[in-house]
Amino acid sequence: MIHPPDVIGKYAPDAVIGVIGEAAAGGGKGGGGGGGPKVFTVAEVAKHTTKGDCWVILNDRVLDVTNFLSSHPGGELAILTFAGRDATEEFNMIHPPDVVGKYAPDAIIGRVGSEAESKAASAVVPDVTKGSVASKKGEKSYEKMEMNKKARMAAYGKVPGLCGAIIYMAIGFMKELLCTIFTQSNIQFTSDRSGLTRSAMWLFLFIIIHAIGNLHVFLGPNDFNGYGYFYVRLYPTGFGLPANIVEIYVALGALLHICVALKRTWETKLGATPKSGGLNLIVSGICLLTFMSIHLFQFRFGETRGFFLCPPPFFINIAGILDMDHFLSLFWVHGDTCKSLADTVEVRDIYRLEFELFESLGWSLFYASAVIIFATHMCLGWKKCIPSPQLDIPKRYHNKAMHVGYIMTAFVCLLYLSFPFYAHVFALNNGCSPTNSFQYDNTDKFPWDNC
């Protein structure tokens, strides 16, 4: 009634698990033990009606939509209403024909049919669960390996407990980071969810790194302005642009995330109501995009005063790690290596810019509200990322992995909230720049004792 007839074949061809007939080909969640097409009766499908085990019938195909419930734009209730039943008429009325194959291809676990069809299908490929191999002589079969992996993914995996959840999450996270761009053979503008998960994870990693870098604001202007100048020194990696490879990669990741999110929203969520929650991600995402545009114009492209800095000979001042007088002075040097103005470089005084901006209570509250919106957006997206098949996180670890992500998000957000609070409450430190710490004369000497 609400979906076109070819929607499953296009969006969820793998969700078909059997055919409805007079008798099921086999028992258990997977249906008949054979490696071929599986057949199910209406009675068998009707047994799977819970949130943790939900099957539906669409166009004579059986779908296990348990893992798709949390990702459904229309909410879980819209699917659970038809759990264990035939939802073809209602589904075809509101969904395009290729929606299942595109967004839930792994949900098709069988088709509907008679008992005779089930027996014929089982005869095509022997039962791999009993040790037989469904391959020609001399050919290596991976069916048993895949079957073991599927069973493992439905349980706890090889590593138990919270450690297992963290390890599987970290492995999946790193794999998606590496696959963000390096696995793309050409530019393709699709609404594939992998584009969202991969770009989101890369952006989250950058946000963590950026938060750690911003901690230098607590060490004073030399550290913070030196940290900013560190990225300027990386401009030769920017392919001829006035930017570095990190900024370019972040821009590409953000562009990918925005484009795929807009396309997915246009195709699948425009009909969602605010009450259903289907628009929460896109609304919070648009708010964050607005904030990031303002943030870039204020800090990345904003006008600043000059600050004279003594940069290290190389990108990082390794000796500054153990310098007790100037703790963690990683991005500037002092003392014998910087004695006069000739040894300094004029850089952007982003430290003073931050204090001048967050002196305003309005801008501080605006920044804090953006951090809260980010936390909401991140948690909602994280909840959708964890069950995705790209991460390969065993099902029983999903809940633990989600909470680990929530804790990480909360910690990062607290870091970002500390910056406007610090700049708003505490006074500006002039640091060791000769333009701010003293009135230098014609001797061109650099009196570090005045710092």
Question: Can you describe this structure?
Answer:
- This protein has 451 residues and is an alpha/beta fold.
- The protein folds into two domains: 7-125, Cytochrome b5-like heme/steroid binding domain (Flavocytochrome B2, Chain A, domain 1, Roll), CATH 3.10.120; 193-436, 3 helical TM bundles of succinate and fumarate reductases (Up-down Bundle), CATH 1.20.1300.
- The chain has helices at residues 7-11, 42-45, 76-80, 88-94, 99-103, 115-124, 143-153, 161-179, 193-214, 221-232, 245-269, 280-300, 350-358, 361-385, 398-425, 434-437, and strands at residues 15-16, 39-40, 49-50, 53-58, 61-64, 108-112, 306-309, 345-348.
- The termini are far apart.
Search tags:
6-stranded mixed beta sheet, Flavocytochrome B2, Chain A, domain 1, alpha/beta, 2 domains, two-stranded antiparallel sheet, single chain, 451 residues, 8 strands, 47% helix, 3 helical TM bundles of succinate and fumarate reductases
What's the SSE blueprint?
Layout: H1 7-11, E1 15-16, E2 39-40, H2 42-45, E3 49-50, E4 53-58, E5 61-64, H3 76-80, H4 88-94, H5 99-103, E6 108-112, H6 115-124, H7 143-153, H8 161-179, H9 193-214, H10 221-232, H11 245-269, H12 280-300, E7 306-309, E8 345-348, H13 350-358, H14 361-385, H15 398-425, H16 434-437
Parallel strand pairs: 1-6, 2-6
Antiparallel strand pairs: 3-4, 4-5, 5-6, 7-8
Helix pairs in contact: 8-9, 8-15, 9-11, 9-15, 12-14, 13-15, 14-15
Short description:
This protein is α/β, with parallel strands linked by helices and 451 residues long. The chain is built from 16 helices and 8 strands.
